[in-house]
Design brief:
seven-stranded mixed beta sheet, globular, disordered N terminus, five-stranded mixed beta sheet, Rossmann fold, 2 domains, about 45% helix, 16 helices, alpha/beta
Length: about 475
């Protein structure tokens, strides 16, 4: 967390909102309503620990906007959790969903614990108790508020949540849709795990494919050959690094809280991950140079910087030292508003978190739809497509008297499975959103940066919904 005790993450989101609101035509009362958090639930509940003592747990759930239902947003387990942070993250979720056209309002949850300090059984009790508190107050449900994993949580916690919910609401046919990011066996969707990292890649790639943007930055078009620094080797950082590397970029450095490693020829994220699993640290990775102070990695010479860890890592102190031409915000709120101002002056392009890391909520939306439809993606059409493609291929080969190679044959005949459809839906979502934001920016060159353009996009969509619904009594 930020070392400035007076810093408010929610206030910084409001600042960005106000900055963008100046470029819109909406009346101030409507803007105030969009900005406000509709409901904030702060709770304390007791849980009996393994050694028999009772601990009182502090937890939150915020529903920022109900202009579309349900609300949607992750639950984080971290000792840095506080009401301000949860409110800020919930509002970012509203804007994020609007930009990528996912029909949800923003929500967010948090439990103030360091999960490393608890046994699996204790974590399970805390998660299940939290869920039952949410059920009591009608703060969770497939049509009300749908949590998801975030910092410190994953599939395991989501499985506990759905099980607790369904045991308290027996016979609710769409009960599995009360939470997303579940294991596939519990109604999860294939492709959810890598979704945020893959979305980051699709978003940055789309920007890199825009010739006018790249020539302004003095970079060549495309992702291939670009030098990338990734901060954070969690789920998002790992998958971002993976897709950049697989598409020809060079991941020159990876940073984690214990330090960072650098290799100008490129790092393989899986090898680094395995090394960290074996030794407990990413340092001393074969062939790489250690950087003892993790934050120094942010200042390395590179084309693209991907902060994929916590908020406020780039602030007024280190922003002047950033050498990257493009920053892709994979984490939530990695830059402070002061850092934004400094980087605009330096001509650095910041691709903002509020849409760039929307891959998670986009695929969560696909998972929720799967839960409501009670059928796996691709189940109906996969074989039909394969049979049809086989037939077309056979006809073409007969007519031309030539035959296709085995590899091409496999590719052409392949019918889409769930993961193919999920990745394709995510790619479509990220490309459309990137172009929409860039169009707004191009049409109004007085907008200072891409974040403001993204906020303008979000404000316009949310305000339009409010106005068309006429929800002002």
């Amino acid at each position: 967390m930020s070392n400035h005790s007076d810093y408010s993450f929610f206030h910084s989101v409001e600042q960005s909102f106000d900055k963008a609101a100046l470029f819109t035509q909406w009346e101030s009362g409507l803007l105030e309503q969009i900005k406000a958090c509709n409901s904030v639930y702060s709770m304390r509940f007791p849980v009996k620990m393994d050694d028999g003592r009772i601990e009182v747990i502090e937890a939150y759930r915020v529903q920022h906007s109900q202009h579309k239902s349900p609300c949607k947003g992750g639950i984080r387990f971290s000792d840095a959790v506080n009401q301000d942070e949860v409110m800020a993250l919930a509002s970012l979720m509203t804007y994020k969903c609007a930009i990528v056209n996912v029909p949800f309002g923003g929500g967010k949850g948090g439990i103030k614990i360091n999960p490393r300090n608890y046994s699996v059984y204790e974590l399970e009790k805390i998660t299940r108790r939290y869920t039952s508190e949410l059920v009591k107050k009608n703060f969770i449900g497939p049509g009300i508020d749908v949590p998801a994993p975030d910092y410190g949580t994953g599939e395991r916690e989501m499985a506990w949540i759905v099980d607790t919910y369904q045991s308290l609401k027996p016979g609710e046919i769409d009960g599995a849709g009360c939470v997303t990011g579940k294991p596939v066996t519990q109604g999860g969707v294939r492709g959810r795990k890598e979704a945020t990292g893959l979305g980051v890649f699709f978003g940055v790639r789309e920007v890199c494919n825009m010739p006018d943007v790249m020539s302004k930055l003095g970079l060549s078009v495309g992702v291939a050959g670009k030098r990338i620094v990734v901060q954070g080797l969690g789920n998002v950082g790992y998958h971002s690094a993976k897709y950049f590397r697989e598409n020809g970029a060079i991941v020159v450095a990876i940073a984690e809280f214990e330090g960072a490693i650098y290799n100008e020829d490129g790092l393989n994220e899986e090898a680094v991950f395995q090394h960290r699993k074996a030794t407990g640290s990413i340092l001393n990775f074969p062939g790489a140079t250690n950087i003892t102070e993790s934050t120094k990695a942010l200042e390395l010479d590179c084309d693209i910087l991907i902060p994929a860890a916590l908020e406020n890592v780039i602030n007024k102190d280190n922003a002047p030292l950033i050498k990257a031409k493009i920053i892709g915000e994979a984490a939530n709120g990695p830059l402070t508003p002061e850092a934004d101002e400094i980087l605009i002056k330096k001509g650095v392009l910041v691709i903002p978190d509020m849409y760039l890391n929307a891959g998670g909520v986009t695929v969560s939306y696909f998972e929720w739809l799967k839960n409501l439809s009670h059928v796996r993606y691709g189940r109906m059409e996969k074989r039909f497509t394969e049979n049809m493609n086989t037939h077309i291929l056979g006809q073409i080969e007969n007519l031309t008297g030539k035959s296709v190679s085995d590899e091409e044959r496999r590719f052409i005949m392949h019918g889409a499975e769930e993961v193919d459809l999920v990745h394709s839906g995510l790619e479509e979502t990220m490309i459309t959103a990137t172009r929409e934001i860039m169009d707004i920016w191009k049409k109004n060159p007085t907008i200072p940066d891409m974040r403001t353009a993204a906020y303008v996009c979000a404000i316009n969509k949310v305000a339009t919904t409010y106005t068309e619904l006429g929800i002002f009594p």
